[in-house]
Amino acid sequence: MRSSKLFTLLPFVHLAIAQNTWTFVPQGNSGIVPLELITLSPTLALMYDRPYANPLKLPNGESAWAGLWHFNNNSATPLDTITNTFCAGGAFISNGTLVAVGGQALDNIAGGGMAEDGRMGIRLFGPCTSADGSGPGCTVFEDPETLHLVVTRWYPTGLRIPDGSLMIIGGSDILTTFNALNISQNNYEFFPPRAGEEGTVRPSKFLNDTLPANLFPRSMVLPSGHVLMISNNQSVIYDIETNTELQRLPELPNGVRIGVPFDGFAQLLPLSGPDYEPTVLVCGGSNKPDTITLAEMSVNDSATTQCSRITVKTSAHEFHVAVP
Ligand SMILES: *[C@@H]1O[C@H](CO)[C@@H](O)[C@H](O)[C@H]1NC(C)=O
Ligand SMILES: *[C@@H]1O[C@H](CO)[C@@H](O)[C@H](O)[C@H]1NC(C)=O
Ligand SMILES: *[C@@H]1O[C@H](CO)[C@@H](O)[C@H](O)[C@H]1NC(C)=O
Ligand SMILES: *[C@@H]1O[C@H](CO)[C@@H](O)[C@H](O)[C@H]1NC(C)=O
Ligand SMILES: *[C@@H]1O[C@H](CO)[C@@H](O)[C@H](O)[C@H]1NC(C)=O
Ligand SMILES: *[C@@H]1O[C@H](CO)[C@@H](O)[C@H](O)[C@H]1NC(C)=O
């Protein structure tokens, strides 16, 4: 039976994990805080931090705020960067280059004054094909004068799209807890820029409508090639080629919101044949109203335990959204 309530609660699942427990084993010191961390290969991970007086030093003796982690010997080597990577977004594009975008403005905390404004930053890394992280492609390429975003973005999402490029979604002009109309980048841009769109952004009604909790919108590409974005308690299916919102999906149930500052996550589940219908799982976040003030928020407020999922059907030239 189909329900009109299209996001459903999943029953609690009790997993038989009694024998398997995780333990933390300290192994080496990264020398920076790997706020943004991504595995590059069996031997390497890349780490971006906020510029501080970090123990990880560049050859010139200055503190690094980026580095490579070596899984072979649990140690870090520094990477030279120009702009402030704190609060950046990004993803791999199809030629194997990791593209980090946006970040934080000038930062003078704790010895971090050495980084340039990162909010329009574009940082290219790789492909780094050597096991030890040396050689071509294994350094961060930045040229802030000539290679930068169209607008400033703090907390943007980066999403690889079907043509192999990066879609850059939203963000704020400045560090903030809640976004606001006068600082929100309610728009998208692409790297590399799409033909005819160099130096421009695409306004987004969806991001405007999901203020003030529209930072780091959870985003994924569907098998149709369209982009599903979830922000605050709303979701949209966006067609990149025609620059149109095809459909708003139902709101997340029970007042739950994801996205900064409510956090939570959304994940496209593995696709299976014969229909490869995409199902998206949305877990965590908060059921606080988005009108709550910072003063009313407490570390003691629980996050939600809710998981919901939605299956997006893409047949017959229209979308049918249903509970499986
Ligand atoms: C990958 O593509 C980007 C965007 O076009 C480009 O800037 C970069 O140089 C490319 N990297 C390689 C290794 O070709
Ligand atoms: C760890 O391995 C990397 C890559 O081979 C090397 O550059 C680095 O010097 C090693 N570090 C230590 C502490 O042995
Ligand atoms: C944005 O508007 C708020 C009031 O709604 C104000 O407090 C704040 O200073 C403004 N920020 C900027 C950057 O103009
Ligand atoms: C964005 O939202 C504000 C209200 O928060 C509204 O006044 C404005 O018209 C909206 N802009 C667009 C382009 O939808
Ligand atoms: C979604 O959030 C809006 C305010 O941002 C609120 O008016 C609406 O009731 C919420 N929807 C649900 C299902 O909680
Ligand atoms: C959170 O709860 C603890 C334990 O009850 C209490 O000591 C603390 O003051 C609370 N913190 C806030 C910010 O409410």
TrEMBL record:
Signal peptide: 1-18
Domain Glyoxal oxidase N-terminal: 68-320
InterPro entries for this protein: Gal_Oxase/kelch_b-propeller (IPR011043), Gal_Oxidase_central_sf (IPR037293), Glyoxal_oxidase_N (IPR009880)
Keyword Calcium found: no
Keywords: Signal
Pfam families xref list: Glyoxal_oxid_N (PF07250)
Coiled-coil regions listed in the entry: none
Membrane-spanning intervals of the chain: none
Record protein name field: Glyoxal oxidase N-terminus-domain-containing protein
Organism (species): Roridomyces roridus
